[in-house]
Amino acid sequence: MGFFKDAYDLFCITTVAKLLGRLYYYDPQNPLKPGKLPNGINNMVTGVALFGTLSGQLVFGWLGDKLGCKKVYGITLLVMVVCAICSGLSFGSSSGSLIGTLCFFRFWLGFGIGGDYPLSATIISEYANKKTRGPFIAAMFAMQGVGIIFAGLVSMCLSAIFLELYPASSFNVDPIFSTQPEADYLWRIVLMFGALPALLTYYWRMKMPETGRYTAIIEGNAKQTAADMGGVLDIEFQVETDKVSQFKEANKYPLLSQEFYDWHGRHLIGTMTTWFLLDIAFYSQNLTQKDIFPAMGLTKNAPQINAIEEVLDTSRAMFFIAMLGTFPGYWFTFLFIVKLGRFTIQLVGFFMMSFFLLYGLTFFFANFGPNSTTFVLPAELFPTRLRSTYHALSAAAGKAGAMIGAFVVQTYTLDDNVNHIKTALIILAFTNMLGFGFTFLIPETKGRSLEEISGEDGSGRQNETHTVTRRSVSLQGSSRLETH
């Protein structure tokens, strides 16, 4: 539910951004020209949450490793609930001040969303066993697809209701050029709806115990680990305090040491670059849909329809693209991540995304591909004491790419020039091919425990074929945990 809300909040703004322009940037001296957000303001409205997301990923990722994911997990949810509601209640004495208030709350909304990335990924990876870990993380991330679908569906249903209630404008001009004043309520309700699923999730989040790996390896509390995991799995664990201490001692090398670089330097470069390149394309596609749809003939141009009809048109197109392309991609990853492996899925996804002529299929292969695997891999590659931090760094690199999509690529497509849109798609195809190449820095992780992948069990260094020779240092009960 956390990831459902994350995606809903990030992408619902796409369905109402044009409506904000018609409401607050309307020129009464030119009644036959619908209002439109200036390019810079449009980019801020749709992209400011990404700045917050990047900041939240770094802050909460670090806190997750220092304090434990459980301790800060509820904070992210409360931030998202409050800021989603406040976004819908944005106020101001002028258009500029209202948009400024909206951007302020959406920044902090993104801050909470950012925390959800490393914390959720770490918690789910440390609770799952090596056979179900990939599908579990992929299933959680697939809720992003459900969130995108609901962003289109909620906007579509609400705009249809508003259109039924308020079919004509109060302006004395042709109704197709009109902006119904009641539409001011529409965008607010769409934004505030995101608070509902977060509220429904809070109780269960607070009941969740800290992961056994954190309690054992970082806190060194074998007794609490056995109690927590025994309660979760309904089996009895034997307390092995001496072996927990031995395990903890084996993993104390400094963060910026040569040993860390030998083990994980290449992996960190790989996860950060691939996520960065992926999000340039992924967020460019999703945030610019409203501008690309008219150029492709999927929706009508603004002068042909009134304001609420434009929301209905845009959200309907977004909904069907998500249903037919985006959503199936996530669940194909869930189904095949064990059989094909993360490495193969990411390579195929980047390669197929390069063919932007197949517009709908790029949404499918983004999600049956790197949009899912770039989230899964950082949750598996790094050791327990750094897992949340380095997932956060990888995710933050992705959001840096997303900002390029929101502020550079989107600007290039705002003028509805078909040639500009084609050029942007060609550039995005090139970034996808770079992502294909950088994938070779990342090893396959399927079929191995987290300790084996990260070297926490005392394994020798992974070689170029990604094989590992395990030594005997391990947690008593670790194999039982992975089995269950």
The CATH homology group name: MFS general substrate transporter like domains
Can you give the helix content as a percent range?
Answer: over 70%
By CATH, the architecture is named Up-down Bundle
What's the gyration radius in Å?
24 Å
Number of helical elements:
21
Name the average pLDDT. 81
Beta content comes to under 5%
Total E-strand runs = 0
Overall shape: globular
**Element pattern in H and E:** HHHHHHHHHHHHHHHHHHHHH
- Taking the alpha carbons of the first and last residues, their distance comes to 24 Å
> What's the assembly state of these chains?
single chain
Count of folded domains = 1
Quick one: CATH class?
Mainly Alpha
List keywords for this structure.
484 residues; mainly alpha; Growth Hormone, Chain: A; globular
What would your notes on this structure say?
It is found in: Membrane. Keywords: Membrane, Transmembrane, Transmembrane helix. Residues 1-447 form the Major facilitator superfamily (MFS) profile domain. It comes from Hibiscus syriacus. Residues 451-484 are annotated as: Disordered. This protein has helices at 2-24, 39-67, 69-88, 95-127, 133-165, 183-192, 195-207, 212-218, 222-233, 241-249, 258-287, 289-296, 307-340, 342-353, 359-367, 370-376, 378-381, 387-413, 418-438, 450-454, 478-483. It has 21 helices and no strands. The radius of gyration is 24 Å and the shape is globular. Mean pLDDT is 81; it is low at 170-175 and 460-484. With 484 residues, the protein is mostly helical. Helix 2 (39-67) runs parallel beside helix 4 (95-127), helix 3 packs antiparallel against helix 7 (195-207) and helix 5 packs antiparallel against helix 13 (307-340). The chain has one domain (2-483): Growth Hormone, Chain: A (Up-down Bundle). 73% of the residues lie in helices and 0% in strands. The longest helix has 34 residues, at 307-340.
